[in-house]
Amino acid sequence: MVAVTDWNPSALVPLTDVEPAIALGPLDGRYRPVAAPLVDHLSEPALNRARLHVEVEWFIHLCSTDAVPGVRALTGDEVALLRSIPATFGADEIAEHAEIEKVTVHDVKAIEYFIKRRLEGTSLAGLSELVHFACTSEDINNLSYALMVKGAVEQVWTPAAESLVADIAALARSSKGAPMLSRTHGQTATPTTLGKEIAVLAHRLERQLARVRGQEFLGKINGATGTFGAHTAAVPGTDWIQVSRTFVEGLGLTWNPLTTQIESHDWQAELYADVARFGRVLHNLATDVWTYISLGYFAQAAAKGSIGSSAMPHKINPIRFENAEANLEISAALFDTLGATLVTSRLQRDLTDSTSQRNIGVAFGHSLLAIDNVRRGLKTLTVNEATLAADLDASWEVLAEPIQSAMRAAAIAGVAGMGDPYERLKDLTRGQVIDAEAIQRFVGSLPLPAETASRLAALTPGSYVGLAEQLVDDYLR
User: Fold this and answer.
1) pLDDT tens-digit map of 10-28
2) Angle 337-166-197 (CA atoms, 0-180°, nearest 5)?
3) Helix (H), strand (E) at residue 182
4) By the 8 A CB rule, do 59 and 100 touch?
């Protein structure tokens, strides 16, 4: 008998030497195709590209506003040269910036030197000290992050979330007339329709989306402690507040006039709370749909060749909804941490926000992955109306509520013999197996007005759905 070998990864082929590089995290490995659209917005190279954009636009703004005496207007070719710097920031440029940073040990200063290299030997060489003029690193960083997050939210996350909500709304509309037994506290309860319940979740998600769409993205450019100290010391005659405001607003951001060295990040905390809340509502949908699948209300279509269980061939597991649950929990935890961390900075500045913000892409990545999984899961579902109907037909006790309510109304109208309606229905139904015959017999024993008696006699669990369909038609966007 051969002994089991001890597991010792350090004695195996080093995976760190494998090319292309093996990702440590799943978003850059297994789930890369789904998370990839965020790379252009929230990766480290995207951060440095955004920094380049802010730096060159500040250079152009200083020239176009005559903020610094003696600075001439730029030619069209010079503006194009400057804007080509972030536009052409690719693999070679990423490596070059990294080499500069090895020397500076400062990523933003490396950006400044990177730009100055590209001005050497050009007509802009004499103006190179305008690069990073009167700026602290956080002037560049806060604007870069605001642009990055704004782009990720508006161009990637929101379109994906909107498509998801549209899919959920479509399912709600298509199943609005499918009667379903409710389960409050896990017990049989007043029937509804499957579509109305799905519509509730679509409506909730749309409300959170509206909050995200209305988000402000704030920015500042006011120096090392937010006082425009260096600006006014160097050029006291310029209206630096106006120059700052027009620059930030020109970037498509909301200007924040009162800050320390950092922009306070409150807008980020607000946004992340809304995105996390969207995720928590989506988590509710995932667990509800999972439960409906387990009850047989939804059937799942299996992809050709797919395996549900390695041991049980019959199974089609609701893995898309389970995967979504886990990723939403990870995403919400990260967003909660970001929101809690970013709103606090010791005195005028500490660096806790620097590392924290580098994880923004991870939080959005797990959220995007969950959205993708739910959309894919929804596409496999079909409504099993036979199971819904059988469940309702086995639950005639739910008609105790409308009968006792009709008895109350009749009593108020002066009909005799309607006393203690709740107690009488409780005695009839609680702990009892109730069928159609028992309900009909009870209704027939009541001295109800003919119209009321006829209406109750015709009622079934499947028809007792109130205004469920109308609510979907009238209020689901």
Assistant:
1) 676 676 676 667 788 999 9
2) 85
3) strand 179-184
4) no
CB neighbours (10 Å) of residue 445?
Answer: 9
Q: With a cut of 60, say whether residue 56 has pLDDT above it.
A: yes
Q: What is the per-residue pLDDT across 408-444, written as a single tens digit (0 to 9) for each?
A: 999 999 999 999 999 999 999 988 888 999 999 999 9
The letter for the amino acid at 220 is: K
Distance CA 410, CA 243 (A): 74
Question: Sign (positive/negative) of CA torsion 459, 461, 467, 472?
Answer: negative
Query: Of 185, 310, 314, 445, which one is the catalytic site residue?
Result: 185
Task: List the one residue out of 181, 184, 176 whose CA is nearest residue 475.
Answer: 176
Strand partners, 300: 381
Catalytic residue status for 97: no
Distance CA 54, CA 262 (A): 16
Contacts of 98 (CB under 8 A, 6+ apart): none
Distance separating alpha carbons of residues 176 and 193, to the nearest angstrom: 6
Rounded CA-CA distance 240/67 in Å is: 8
- Tokens 């940073």 correspond to 101
| pTM for the predicted model, two decimal places | 0.92
Choose the catalytic residue: 84, 309, 405, 463. 309
Q: b/e map of 457-471 (b: 16 or more CB within 10 Å)?
A: eebbbbebbeebbeb
- CA 281/CA 294 separation, integer angstroms: 20
Q: Which two tokens stand for residue 310?
A: 């390695």
